[in-house]
Design brief:
three-stranded antiparallel sheet
């Protein structure tokens, strides 16, 4: 148990899961394979009556994609930026987005409140475009000014500790997180969804994503002996074996 908990802490941030509401096209981000009800509902803004559900229904929220990062710091930075971009979409959208486009009041009158809520809830295309933009930013890396600022912060804290003074920082600031997109893999339940973004960094690998009933598939790992499979409870199950089991289950249902 202790080793399993330590492994989960060490790998926290290496995967980001996108879940999509198949009715409203709302999207929530998760650092875990299963959605946390409270954490996910906190990402959904109130846009009118019945725009925020009391709870997440598993039959409505389906996995959209899974992003795998080689280092946890890369994933945590991408997750933070995705949440920031989402907030901009919710608060800084163009007025033309919620303006009538037909009828005698086209371009002059806002849509009814219910219709405005439906338009603003549809964040599927925005979320995918945001993901491509976030990966492009990580490919560029930190600017020299940001690196110098972080180094000055670290030096200031170390100086205060050496003098025995208290600092408002609870811990020593870390250096800039790992950047770049080498080794980043995006796995899609529908590969055509990647076309919502205009451009993707060339280093990013796109692949398919299977579903385990209501949740996304487990992360795929490659062992030293060449076995490629999904990692579950510390063991690697070969992909071929998984596909055979799923095919047999579908035939049994039929």
């Amino acid at each position: 148990m202790a080793q399993s908990a330590a492994r989960q802490v060490a790998e926290h941030g290496t995967q980001i899961y996108f879940y999509n509401n198949i009715r409203t096209n709302q999207v929530v981000y998760s650092l875990t394979r299963t959605l946390n009800n409270n954490a996910s509902l906190a990402q959904i803004p109130f846009l009118g009556k019945k725009t925020v559900p009391a709870g997440l229904r598993k039959d409505l929220w389906h996995p959209l994609c899974l992003i795998e990062f080689p280092h946890p710091s890369q994933g945590l930075l991408a997750y933070r930026r995705l949440r920031e971009f989402r907030r901009l979409h919710e608060t800084s959208y163009p007025i033309s987005l919620v303006t009538r486009t037909d009828g005698p009041h086209a371009g002059k009158q806002l849509l009814p409140k219910k219709n405005r809520g439906k338009v603003l809830m549809d964040q599927k295309a925005n979320s995918i475009a945001d993901l491509a933009a976030v990966l492009a930013l990580q490919k560029e890396g930190w600017t020299e000014e940001h690196v110098r600022t972080r180094q000055r912060q670290i030096a200031r804290v170390e100086m205060q500790k050496a003098r025995g003074k208290k600092t408002w920082l609870r811990k020593r600031p870390q250096g800039p997180p790992d950047m770049g997109v080498e080794g980043v893999r995006v796995r899609w339940t529908n590969l055509l969804d990647a076309e919502f973004a205009e451009n993707w960094p060339e280093e990013v690998v796109h692949d398919g994503l299977t579903r385990h009933r209501y949740t996304a598939a487990l992360p795929i790992v490659e062992e030293e002996d060449g076995i490629i499979g999904e990692k579950e409870k510390g063991e690697v199950v070969p992909v071929a074996m998984l596909e055979e089991g799923r095919r047999a289950a579908l035939e049994a249902r039929a």
